[in-house]
Amino acid sequence: MLSYRHSFHAGNYADVLKHIVQVEILSHLVIKDKPFTYIDTHSGAGLYSLSSEQATKTAEFSEGIGKLNKSDWPELESYFKIINSLNADGELAVYPGSPRIFGKDKRFIVKAEDGYEQLIALLPPMSKRGFVLIDPSYEIKSEYDRVVETLIKAHRRFTTGTYALWYPVVDRSRINRLEKKLIESGIKRIQLFELGQQKDTIERGMTSAGMIVINPPWTLFGKMKELLPRLATVLGRDDVPIFRCEELVGE
Ligand SMILES: C[S@@+](CC[C@H](N)C(=O)[O-])C[C@H]1O[C@@H](n2cnc3c(N)ncnc32)[C@H](O)[C@@H]1O
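Above: inputs. Below: predicted complex with S-adenosylmethionine.
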């Protein structure tokens, strides 16, 4: 039986990385006064209590968002604005999931269906501009292959869209394989941003987490290059900051 519950992990360092990248991409898309489509294939609940039994059991957020002091991160103003708008009295009581990061809008459609199948069915979007966030729980190992296959298929249908794929590093060889498949797919403009909490182990829990972005906004790489070493210093458990900021495939 599949048992993944994001409420145990909400606001941890992996969520922080994911949502910073998500906010950066969305902030770039809204600059132009033109419609765009946002697709969140694995949206989850949308809002998480940090005082719930699940959240306090692991307290993962205390090593993630709980460690970041807003005043130290002026470049993350938009990200903190979203979190603060949900925590009016300044206490960190709730943390937003990716659909809540995007906001509220009566045009949103929520489907309780398979995110991979729905993604392919929805592409290409009418708007011709779009951002797809793929954030699976990777409960079954075959999911590492399924995400890449889906991403390649989606990209064929909607080549100009921006895609962000989240991944956990539990066994580095799986991520190496995933990267290799993407590089060999012929897809251009692929960047990778990874934030580590500790050095790699094999199957002893998540040690790093990353975002692979296809067709990133031109500002993203520079911003992440500045942010990642600092985030890794504050959020890492190791003496040495662990991160990656790489262009996997260029133009
Ligand atoms: C990592 S969580 C998503 C977190 C969310 N994107 C966020 O940033 O707050 C993955 C979610 O996908 C759901 N899920 C699992 N398999 C799915 C599928 N085939 N299609 C859509 N959602 C799925 C899980 O129940 C879980 O809520």
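The two ends are 42 Å apart (CA to CA).
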